[in-house]
Amino acid sequence: MANFMKVNIGKIYVVGLREGDEVISSITSFAKENGLDAITFYGIGGFERVRLGFFRGQGEYDVVTIYSSKPKAIEVAPIVGSVIKRSTDDYHPHIHVSISYKNSDKIETVSAHLLEGIVYPLMELFVFELNDVYMDQLKKIFPHRFI
């Protein structure tokens, strides 16, 4: 049986990121600045540069960096993730992304952990505040998020 916890959805925020914004720092700052202990989000948009991590076990990733050739963007559809407040000033993002881009004459599509993403030309995020998240219980459900 799966471990689970029932939570409630609070406010829903519509967040727009602009060219040059870095996604991970932007969404983490958004959670901190708005006093949100736990959020989940999804969105669409584009990157000019993206660094992806393909999980290989025990915190190890194969890392790939992809660059766009402006005015063409690296298409993002979708980006999904969460940010949780682990302690007073420690917010932990966990983000996955699926992207498409042109590589020579063919279109490549990959999905992986987002390690860095520089927005181009924009990104639309829909952010859900999660209420009634009990961190002691969450640690049992997602222990890897608290290492």
Secondary structure layout:
Elements: E1 8-18, H1 23-33, E2 38-57, E3 60-67, E4 74-87, E5 90-103, E6 106-131, H2 135-141
Antiparallel strand pairs: 1-6, 2-3, 2-4, 2-6, 4-5, 5-6
Concise synopsis of the structure shown:
This protein has 147 residues and is mainly beta. The protein has helices at 23-33, 135-141, and strands at residues 8-18, 38-57, 60-67, 74-87, 90-103, 106-131.
The CATH topology is what? 60s Ribosomal Protein L30, Chain: A
Class in CATH? Alpha Beta
N-to-C SSE series?
Answer: EHEEEEEH
Unreliable stretches: none
Beta-strand content bin: over 45%
Describe the overall structure.
The protein is mainly beta. The protein has one domain (12-132): Hypothetical protein, similar to alpha- acetolactate decarboxylase, domain 2 (60s Ribosomal Protein L30, Chain: A), CATH 3.30.1330. The chain has helices at residues 23-33, 135-141, and strands at residues 8-18, 38-57, 60-67, 74-87, 90-103, 106-131. Strands 1, 2, 3, 4, 5 and 6 form a six-stranded antiparallel β-sheet that branches. It is globular, with a radius of gyration of 16 Å.
Q: Main attributes?
A:
mainly beta; 2 helices; 60s Ribosomal Protein L30, Chain: A; 147 residues; 6-stranded antiparallel β-sheet
